[in-house]
């Protein structure tokens, strides 16, 4: 399965949710579309700089553009991205189309398995400022992979478009993030262990299959050799002769012998007569 999604399209005016999620009717959609199509955003996409994370917690704690590492509960963690935007466009009617690549990081592998299992979707992370009762998007950080995306159709599955409301208490959020990062590491370790075991089992099966094929080849060769040997033995044997044929051949031999003896006597008699006359004897 490709690590890059097919083209995913959703509409900023249609969340696809009736009872859950966060209303976005107070966001300036035109400004949002213009920001998506802006040279700054498109350059970030083209250069591969627009990355995302597993869940919104990292951005909620460290901002729309988070650092590479962070100290959480006294331990330093690498804040590895999970996904990258490889295509992003918006239409005046609010349609947004994008393709996402799952990165080969711990978070990326975990998000990719969720995506293949059809669990969760993509959620855009933006910075927006209030203006006359409306929020105007100013910066797009990218998309994060969340379990419940605010826009139902954004699943190819910052204002943060997750449908979940996370308590804005730093200690709780940090603990939640630590648990997510640790669980991802544990999950990936277990998954790779299973992969290794499956690979070893596959290799063992291939070796056994090769051994059986070799044994079959040897047995087939032995059968062919036995058949050839049998053919050679058969060709060296005399053809079968019936008793009647054998007696007939014996009578013919005896008759020929007797005829030969009679001819010899006649020849001797003639020789004596001629010899006597010419005194040869």
Structure description:
- It contains 6 helices and 9 strands.
- The chain has helices at about 30-35, 40-45, 55-60, 105-115, 170-235, 245-280; strands at about 10, 50, 70, 75-80, 85-90, 95-100, 120-130, 135-145, 160.
- A hairpin with a 4-residue loop joins strand 5 and strand 6.
- Helix 4 packs across helix 5.
- The model is unreliable at about 275-280 (pLDDT under 50).
Terminal Cα span: 115 Å
Strand content: 15-25%
What general form does the structure show? rod-shaped
State the share of residues found in helices, binned by percent.
40-55%
Order of strands, main sheet, comes to: 1-6-5-2
Q: Give a quick account of the main beta sheet: strands, pairing sense, barrel closure.
A: 4 strands, antiparallel
Output the radius of gyration. Answer: 47 Å
Counting H and I runs of at least 4 residues, what is the number of helices?
6
Number of strands: 9
Which structural class should the secondary elements be placed in? alpha+beta
Unreliable segments of 5+ consecutive residues: 273-281
């Amino acid at each position: 399965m490709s690590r890059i999604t097919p083209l995913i399209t959703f509409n900023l005016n249609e969340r696809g949710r009736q009872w859950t999620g966060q209303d976005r009717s107070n966001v300036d959609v035109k400004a949002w579309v213009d920001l998506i199509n802006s040279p700054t955003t498109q350059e970030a996409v083209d250069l591969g700089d627009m990355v995302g994370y597993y869940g919104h917690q990292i951005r909620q704690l460290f901002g729309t553009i988070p650092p590479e590492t962070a100290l959480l509960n006294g331990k330093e963690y690498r804040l590895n991205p999970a996904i990258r935007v490889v295509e992003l466009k918006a239409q005046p009617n609010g349609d947004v189309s994008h393709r996402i690549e799952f990165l080969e990081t711990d978070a990326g592998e975990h998000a990719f398995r969720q995506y293949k299992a059809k669990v969760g979707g993509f959620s855009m992370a933006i910075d927006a400022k209030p203006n006359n009762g409306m929020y105007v998007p100013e910066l797009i950080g990218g998309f994060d992979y969340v379990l419940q995306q605010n826009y139902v159709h954004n699943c190819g599955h910052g204002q943060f478009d997750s449908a979940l409301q996370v308590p804005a208490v730093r200690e709780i959020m940090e603990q939640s993030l630590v648990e997510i990062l640790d669980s991802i590491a544990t999950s990936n370790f277990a998954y790779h262990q299973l992969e290794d075991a499956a690979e070893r089992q596959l290799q063992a099966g291939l070796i056994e299959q090769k051994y059986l094929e070799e044994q079959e080849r040897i047995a087939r060769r032995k059968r062919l050799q036995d058949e050839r040997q049998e053919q050679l033995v058969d060709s060296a044997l005399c053809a079968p002769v019936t008793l009647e044929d054998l007696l007939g051949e014996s009578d013919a031999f005896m008759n020929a012998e007797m005829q030969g003896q009679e001819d010899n006597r006649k020849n001797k008699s003639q020789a004596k007569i001629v010899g006597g006359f010419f005194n040869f004897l």
